[in-house]
Amino acid sequence: MLLWSRLFQQEVEAVKPPSIELMDMASVLLQPQGEDMVCISWYIHNLLSKHQETFSVIEKCPKPVIAAIHGGCIGAGVDLITACDIRYCAKDAFFQVKEVDMGVASDVGTLQRLPRVIGSQILVNELAFTARKLMADEARSSGLVSRVFPDKEVLFDAAFSLAAEISSKSPVAVQGTKVNLLYARDHPVADSLNFVVSVSFRPITVRLPFQCSQSELSSLLYAVCSDWWAIGYPPIFIGPTLIFPASSVAVTLFLPRNWNMSMLQTDDIVKSVQAAMEKKELKSVTFSKL
């Protein structure tokens, strides 16, 4: 989980949101490097691309990123938080697409990500054309943030608690979910479904390091494979095969290849199922690290 450690909380609070220095940018635009228009244009293109990547790397991080916002979130601050996966804010937070007041158009992420985040092009148009402030309650109702807290102390506690909860899940499952969510955001439903599941098959072996009855094994296999049945790709079973010592069972399956195959090839799914059968909390399970 990419969330600031409490150890560095004071240092992080002292850091301003990344921003593009207006004077430096003005100098670049008024006196750009290059001998002709093509060279100048290419230089500016590369410069802006570098600034865009500064924020895109947050979105590309394989682990979920949580933004905890208090006070003003202006200009590049909006670029930053819209690249995050989850956003919480304090009651005193406000959000402002300020670039139009500076005589420029936002060009490093806000205009591209904000419409997808809040799902209202009309509201994005209003915010971007007027540079008006979006206060915390309206940010919550529009979907920019999922929760609003009375002050930054409660906000940080909630953000760290959320990070701890997500961190208790299987890293393979969490990161695989993020991959699929990002792909689905930018592609049609049909393409996203094809991304998750392909028509090619590959064999895997699920090994259960505990004893279970035939009925328990059948229920487990159905739970593991129900998604493939639902979409019309029934798995082909070979087994079960008893492995000595008889405390473990291995089942070979031919399943459609997709991202979730990784889960079935780690111990995470076995640990989750075993915890459920033993009526244990998932928080007690130690998952494989990535």
From TrEMBL:
One Pfam family matching this protein: ECH_1
Gene3D superfamilies: 2-enoyl-CoA Hydratase, Chain A, domain 1, Lyase 2-enoyl-coa Hydratase, Chain A, domain 2
Biological or metabolic pathway of the protein: Lipid metabolism; fatty acid beta-oxidation
GO biological process terms, semicolon-separated: fatty acid beta-oxidation
GO molecular function: delta(3,5)-delta(2,4)-dienoyl-CoA isomerase activity
Name of the protein in its database record: Delta(3,5)-Delta(2,4)-dienoyl-CoA isomerase, mitochondrial
Coiled-coil intervals: none
Entry-linked PROSITE patterns: ENOYL_COA_HYDRATASE
Family the UniProt entry places it in: Belongs to the enoyl-CoA hydratase/isomerase family.
Signal sequence segment: none
Keyword Protein biosynthesis tagged: no
A GO cellular component entry from the record: mitochondrion
Keywords: Fatty acid metabolism, Isomerase, Lipid metabolism
Top-level division of the source organism's lineage: Eukaryota
